[in-house]
Fold:
Amino acid sequence: MIEQDTVRLLRECDAGVKMGTASIDDVLDFVRSEEMRAHLVHSKEEHNSLEGEIEAALHRFHDEGKEPNPIAKSMSWMKTNVMLKMHESDNTIADLMTDGCDMGVKSLSRYLNEYKAADESAKDIAKKLIHMEETLGQQMRAYL
Structure:
């Protein structure tokens, strides 16, 4: 049970960190504020670093990880592009990013509660990712 919950939690973290990185990539070319860009680039670097940690943990269990849900990823990309076509501004980007961060925190918190038997290292990774999403969401609120 511990190993099964550990792998499941790590897979969800893997999908979440990839979704976060893709979302940042989707908006970076539209950012006008250098300060906002710096927050996003820093968060992307943190996501990439944590992704390496997640992949190493999954490798120990001989697991390939999990890609984000293709429908969710497509819907996110479409929403981002439609909103930015209508209102290309840092305000719109902040709105999109805070929504994404909030959804990530909610989903990861649910998985953390669902996979209670996961080992502490996997739980720590999930908590790190939750903290990263909370931090980025708070930083983006300054641009709403």
